[in-house]
Amino acid sequence: MSCVQEWPEPIVRVQSLAENGCATIPDRYIRVPKERPGEDLVAHDVDIPLIDLGGLFSPDEGAHAATLAKVGKACREWGFFQVVNHGVPGDLMDRVLEVWRQFFHLPMEEKQRYANSPNTYEGYGSRLGVEKGAILDWSDYYFLHYLPSGLKDHNKWPAHAPYHRDVVEEYLAEVVKLSGRLMKVLAINLGLQEDRLQNAFGGEEVGACLRVNFYPKCPQPDLTFGLSSHSDPGGLTFLLPDSHVSGLQVCKDNKWVTVKPSRHAFIVNIGDQMQVLSNAHYKSVEHRVMVNPNVERLSLALFYNPTGNLLIEPIKELVTPQKPALYRPMTFNEYRLYIRSTGLHGKSQVESLKRNINQDKHDHF
């Protein structure tokens, strides 16, 4: 997959701005007034569902069915939920957060060895999209490929400590296992064979990549975002948040809900490709990240995606005369190339895939 080769402007590391003690943020991070964070739009008395996945492994059929139902309800009503008792060791979650925190506190010249480009985004980065003069987010990140194995290149993974790559490798393997388990749950809740969604993703040839988000302290958090409002372009996202610092907000009923992260929990959300495959039974949801004036924040997002060259379209078993196919086919490679070119813009990307049902009927007759 090809893309633009170079960034349109010199890259500035947000962490450097924060550590230099700036009292105001540069104009390129300042949102126009109508797009800035607003307390009047935040719902403080609700949170996304918290689901104990232990029931999935229970011999008690009632507990198993109840857990399935909770996941199904969360996917349909929220598109976001937290999971505990998920099978990934808590000490491994702690270790992987620590090795990435160590990376972001290395000297800048060491981190710059891993600087990325818009061609693959793999490596150390500070912006999405290649639009010149675009308003940027107050964050740095590290992006790397894990699956398919042909894309994984350990030379592009940080090696600042002897164990860094080993910890990251072990962590990603565990989260991919969890992804496969939840894919079966989501399929069953749609009335499909348990391997139907996995096969639609490409079977064993799925994609998985990691984005590590670093949100430095921000002196004017009311003017900018750590990550602009968007829905995730892939299939499923498994977010390991900093349980000590909240920042993620999810859009629900035209209000923003601030997620309260639980220790050793994953925040799971539906991506655009799952919305397309499920014919909108499951919906990806807009979310954004706030920044903090007093503390930095770190999070790890594993994206579990369809293989890049497969056409993704509504699964035929979910297409009926009452609910025809809502989306036109597109490969995931084509879809993410579009996003890498334009940056994050709410749900405009997946909305652009919608078919004109009335026009389709007219053409048919």
TrEMBL record:
Pfam families in alphabetical order: 2OG-FeII_Oxy, DIOX_N
Biological process terms in GO annotation: defense response; negative regulation of defense response to insect; regulation of defense response to fungus; regulation of jasmonic acid mediated signaling pathway
Limits of the Fe2OG dioxygenase domain: 205-306
UniProt keyword annotations, A-Z: Dioxygenase, Iron, Jasmonic acid signaling pathway, Metal-binding, Oxidoreductase, Plant defense
Known cofactor(s): Fe(2+); L-ascorbate
Catalytic activity: jasmonate + 2-oxoglutarate + O2 = (1R,2R)-12-hydroxyjasmonate + succinate + CO2
Keyword rRNA-binding among UniProt keywords: no
PROSITE patterns xrefs: FE2OG_OXY
One MF annotation (Gene Ontology) recorded for this entry: jasmonic acid hydrolase
InterPro entries: DIOX_N, IPNS-like_FE2OG_OXY, IPNS-like_sf, Oxoglu/Fe-dep_dioxygenase_dom, Plant_2OG-oxidoreductases
Family stated for the protein in its record: Belongs to the iron/ascorbate-dependent oxidoreductase family.
Name of the protein described by the UniProt record: Fe2OG dioxygenase domain-containing protein
Organism: Nepenthes gracilis
Organism phylogeny: Eukaryota, Viridiplantae, Streptophyta, Embryophyta, Tracheophyta
